[in-house]
What does this fold into?
Amino acid sequence: MNDKSEMIVMRNVWKQFGSLQALRGVNLTVRQGTVLVIIGPSGSGKSTLLRCINRLEIPTHGEVWVDGQLVVADERKLTPLRAEIGMVFQHFNLYPHLSVMQNVTLAQQIVRKRSRQEAERIALEQLERVGIGEKAYNYPRQLSGGQQQRVAIARALAMNPKIMLFDEPTSALDPEMIKEVLDVMLMLAREGTTMVVVTHEMNFARAAADEVIFMDEGQIVEQGTPEQIFTSPQHERTRQFLSQIMV
Amino acid sequence: MAYEDSYAGIRPIVPVAPRTVRILERVNRFPWWAVAVVLIALITARTIYLSETYLEAFQFIVAGLSVTMMTTLTAFMIALVIGLITGMGRISHNILGHNIATLYVELIRGIPMLVLIFFIALVGVPTAVQLLNSFGHWLLALGLDGIAQPLILLENKGVPMNVRAIIALAVTYGAFLAEVFRAGIQSIDRGQMEAARSQGMTYWQAMRYIILPQAIRNVLPALGNDFISMLKDSSLVSVLAVRDITQVARLYAGQTFRYPEAYVTLSVIYLSMTMLLSMLVKVLERRYRTHER
It folds into this structure.
């Protein structure tokens, strides 16, 4: 754990939902500044794995370390740790009763204890970074799906997290809006953000990932560079999956 | 564009119902009941104005209006607080909080309101006073005279019936409102709590800034309707001899034997208040619905 470059370490993580074993002994290391993309069929445990990192899902067994700290149940330790982990959801989960600006400033003020002025300055900075500065005083419902998701990314970035988690960020979007979100994510990847991305966008995986993980039935089946996974997959199950989605 | 163009010039064929059918439909849909209500109100107002006995009954009964209003308003405010806390308890993962809240709601829901009012006013309040007394003695033993004295001096006799009535209504409605708040909180998508928690907010911060503002807005119409129900149910406190409009009307009827005057007037007073309030609730509901979009 002394190696500073290890941002996320998962050791033998299991997760059980009732009679379903969603994760079956996952081991994983994500180094600082790298982008990990997790692919796999639906129900393979990708999202569950991601949600175990910030304990939105509580592992039944095993350890998760983030930035050298064990992710524990104790609220007083968990809450500050979560602030260091930005998360982007499939359904955006913006706060509908708050304006875009308030969406991005709220947690900065009450969790990071920033002044309103400072929070708003950072919010505008981040909104402009994702190309949506002019919508700061609109409400989420007035934006398109792609714009909402970019606000959600800005909301997470405004907390200056050490890690960004993306849980199928383009799966709920209309096809013509996927690109604008992926472009932002690609930009973040190029800037050296530590990212873990669950996605079905294989082109994004090729372009942005340092490492790709293929999961099936709660286990990591294969792990390697995008080159290795996409051009010369070792396992039959990986080949089968890739042939089905790469038409 | 081409899609729209291809239809240019083609007049859509709208099926038109025969005139008589259209008129019939309008007649059927017209809110005749509202006309009836307005008529009743007008006739009653005229009767009260013209008939000396009705006027006398009205003046006698209206004296209880402030008690009815004060009782309802105060009890509702307290019930809102009880309801919000209990509602959050119902969905809480804290075993103690969850079970206490559920026990309270189930107990209240299983007992008729009239019985509850007797029970709380005549058994609950005296018991609470006794408990506070012994708590005061315990504090005195600890040497906390300042807080202990008022608790020890509290007497059951000293709690007026009006206050008992308010406590009874508040405790009863607290359980109803708890269910309203619980449903409101549960109607908010789980992703909202997850987003807030993922940003490092505590459970209570997420509740306060994210969940409750949305939940409360959603349940405002339901709360309005419960307020109307409480206004009507406040008539039950007349059994405690609290001089609300119902009790005053009973007194008037008892003294004069003018039953129609007493109870027609009483009914119309309730009706005008509840109709006015339910109109307000409808306006409120419509305003929030248009704000949604």
